[in-house]
Write a structure and sequence with these properties.
Elements: H1 10-17, H2 22-36, H3 46-56, H4 64-79, H5 91-110
Helix pairs in contact: 4-5
Length: about 120
């Protein structure tokens, strides 16, 4: 997201950079994923913090257009040669299913459609 040079995506990049640095987002996303996948309470504030953050800090990206772009970045990261997700063939499908569940929840919460999102 931070390295994206596409001018059409500037609105998306700005929404993230106004909140925090790349390192900040990596820390919070890591905590969120660890928490979601059973590593204990890592994401401080839990669901309340997440809902508050999305409603007040990230509302510009909590749209169908934002979800489509977010999933493009997620797919690119997951498929990147720089990322080692083990040789277990179940890992990628599990991540994509999780992302679909989360996106459907966000679509419901923020009143946007999710049927046009490509997950894999």
């Amino acid at each position: 997201i931070y390295e994206d040079k596409n001018a059409e995506n500037q609105w998306f990049k700005t929404a993230f950079s106004q909140i925090g640095s790349v390192k900040h987002h990596i820390r919070t996303q890591t905590a969120f994923w660890l928490d979601a996948f059973g590593a204990g309470k890592k994401y401080h504030g839990g669901e309340f913090r997440l809902s508050y953050h999305h409603q007040y800090n990230a509302s510009a990206v909590m749209t169908e257009k934002g979800a489509i772009l977010w999933m493009q970045f997620m797919r690119d990261a997951i498929e990147s040669k720089k990322v080692n997700l083990t040789k277990d063939p179940r890992v990628k499908p599990a991540i994509f299913v999780f992302l679909k569940v989360i996106m459907n929840k966000y679509g419901h919460d923020f009143k946007f459609k999710t049927d046009s999102i490509t997950y894999e």
